[in-house]
Amino acid sequence: MATAPRPRTTTRDPEELAARLTAWLDRRLPGATVSGLAVPGSNGMSSETLLFDLEHPDAPVRGCALRLAADPAAYTVFPVYDMARQHRVMALVADHTDVPVPRVLWLEEDAEPLGAPFFVMARAEGRVPPDVMPYTYEGNWLHAATDAQRALLEAESVGILARLHDQFPAKEAEFLLPDGTGSPLRRHVDAQRVYYAWVVAGLAPSPLIEAAFARLEELWPDDEGPAVLCWGDARIGNIVYDGFTPAAVLDWEMAACAPREVDLGWTVYLHRFFQDLTVGFGQPGLPGFLRREAIERRYAELTGHTPRAMEFHTLYAALRHAIVMLRIAYRQAYFGEVEVPADPDRLILHHATLAAMVRGAYWTGES
């Protein structure tokens, strides 16, 4: 992890993007100028973010962030990038809750101006727990914080989920349901099966991922619980913090109408992913931070809803992450950054964790 090259996140030319963005903005605000255009070093692979300053007397804000769908010619991580859907979710969250989301400004669904659809929002100021190297490693602001400061950040972050799930009208989230039949959870899982089939089409499938799908069926909860608006990519690396309290919640592309535990399982597992990697590379990480039992307890205190079937939901989170990681690995192979091993399960960085969850051994501490 410490020496592997970071997968490329873009195939676009920043200078060309800047020129095209300036031309597009001039049609919205004639005479507007763009300065300080930057591509954050933490840019993801599912979409790209551009930061810039906007100068114009009628500009709604000065600091802007632009979310641009992935280049369709660059072996995308997901098959569809629905920027209008993300834009709508963020606007609705702002309308119905007090969850801090950046103010959305303009939506462009035509791919012609920048090569793919995009939207512009107000830039959030603050700091984000890093992914590379992850915040569980030494040498970043969150690792260097005190236990009390991290406890505050943890409590406030779980509070984001509680407020989102409780305040957002569940009926308003139903437009996010995937096509199909059955409960919201069944549709969510079925959509992941479709995504997995797309990832491995023409390539080696993953026996481990397929075993995890089978294990999900064995663990399927008797009571799935009510569906709510789920953030989707519910993790602290998608929150901008002012000190140790959330200032902006980002990355809504995985938003869903699903049981609350879909978000809770993702929050628990994504931290464990970083923590397990850190321990595997000889550092202690942050063993007392974002522990499953603490997250469940805090959430229950805030909402009155006791999280249920969390073995199912943490396995489901690890499974979903494994599918994404397999796609990213095949993407790296496409660009000549890695070679595909004989066992495709080895492309999944957390394959040992997922295998332990399939066996029911992970949370017991068994090997």
Automatic annotation (TrEMBL):
This is Phosphotransferase family protein. Gene3D superfamilies: 3.90.1200.10, Phosphorylase Kinase, domain 1. Residues 82-276 form the Aminoglycoside phosphotransferase domain. InterPro entries: ACAD10_11_N, AGP_Transferase, Aminoglycoside_PTrfase, Kinase-like_dom_sf. PANTHER family: AMINOGLYCOSIDE PHOSPHOTRANSFERASE DOMAIN-CONTAINING PROTEIN-RELATED (PTHR21310:SF40), AMINOGLYCOSIDE PHOSPHOTRANSFERASE-RELATED-RELATED (PTHR21310).
